[in-house]
Amino acid sequence: MIKKMDVNIFKENLVCVLEKIAIANNLIVSENWRFRIIPILEKNKPLNTKDDIMRLIVLNEESLEKRGIMVLDQAIAALSCFVPLCPIWIDVKLKETTDKLIIVELYTSLRMRKPTELHNQETGHPPFRAVI
Length: 132
Hints:
Layout: H1 7-24, E1 33-40, H2 49-58, H3 61-67, H4 72-79, E2 86-87, E3 90-97, E4 102-109, E5 112-113, E6 128-131
Parallel strand pairs: 1-4, 3-6
Antiparallel strand pairs: 2-5, 3-4
């Protein structure tokens, strides 16, 4: 079980999932990967103050539209702004590949939790899960 989270660990965990997706799709993880964050409001799951800040300020629709498609470090900055708290789960899904870009969607919970509460512990790279 993971007991510590910082921005570097968060990034390493996301890169591990991207590598799994790349292997499954015969791709190479490089700087031409772009990310779209899609927040998921979970029904019947209580939100605390930090969750509400994430929902209303960091990952609100207007803010995400402004940012558009992000590079890796921008996506990490948005999702890890409360480290050591981070989204309880993030599903990573390859959306589209073109000659120039690879678009990845990050479906994310808005519930910010401490490292021991994160989902996908068994994969070794919580909170991320590759959706292949």
